[in-house]
Amino acid sequence: MTIRVCFVCLGNICRSPTAEATMRLLVEEVELRGRIEIDSAGTGAWHVGEPPDRRARAAAKRRGIDIRGRARKVIVGDFEDFHYLIAMDQANRIDLHRLAPNEAAERKVELLRNFDADSPRDAEVPDPYYGGDDGFERVLDICEAGCRGLLRHIRDMHRL
Ligand code: 4NP
Questions:
Q1: Residue 12 is part of which domain span?
Q2: Residue nearest to atom 3 of ligand 1 (CA)
Q3: Contact, 40 vs 99, CB < 8 A?
Q4: How confident is the model over 9-32, as a mean pLDDT?
C-alpha cells in the first residue's frame, strides 16, 4: 500500500509546500519513494495556481531543498485520496475538521508539530507571509523536526 500525505496551510505557497519538499527529501533519504506519496494544499483560494513564495524557495534552496508545484485549494475528495492531512496551524485544523465528511476523515487530520516530541502540545507552524526572512528559516527548522517525527510515525504504523 502507498501511504499518501497532504500538508495543509492557508495559502499553499509558504508553509505546506515547504513541509511537502522537506518530507519528500526525508522519504528519499530512506529510499521509501513509491511507498509514501506527498502533496500539499491550502484552505484558502487566494493564491490558487501560483508557484511557491519566492522567499520560501530561496530559504529552502540554501539548504538544498527544492520547493515546486502550484497552489491548490483543499477539496473534500482529499479525505478519500490521503491517509494523513497534516495541518500547519489551529485554523487549518479547524477548517479541515469542518470540511471532513465523517469521523474517519476527521481522524486523518493532525497538527504537524504534534509529531515532534520536542515541541509543546498543539504548537503551530507560524505563518511567515507578513514577516521577515528569518520566519522562513524558522519554518524550515520546524518542518524538518515535524517531518522527521511524522516519517517515524508512518514507518511504525505501516511497518515500512
Ligand atoms: P501559507 O502562507 O499559508 O504558509 O502559504 C500564507 C500565504 C498567503 C497568505 C497568508 C499566509 N495570504 O494572506 O495571502
A1: 3-158
A2: 10
A3: no
A4: 98
Q: Which CATH number does the domain housing residue 134 bear? A: 3.40.50.2300
**Residues with catalytic roles:** 9, 15, 127
Q: Number of structural domains, the chain?
A: 1
Give whole-number Cα distances, 125 to 1, 10, 18, 29, 140, in Å.
Answer: 29, 11, 11, 24, 10
10 lines ligand 1 (CB under 6 A): yes
- Asked whether 46 lines ligand 1 (CB < 6 A), one says yes
Q: What is the mean pLDDT of residues 87-99?
A: 98
Cell numbers describing residue 127: 505563518
**How many Å apart are CA 34 and CA 49, to the nearest integer?**
26
pLDDT at 102: 98
pLDDT classification of 19: cutoffs 50, 70, 90 = very high
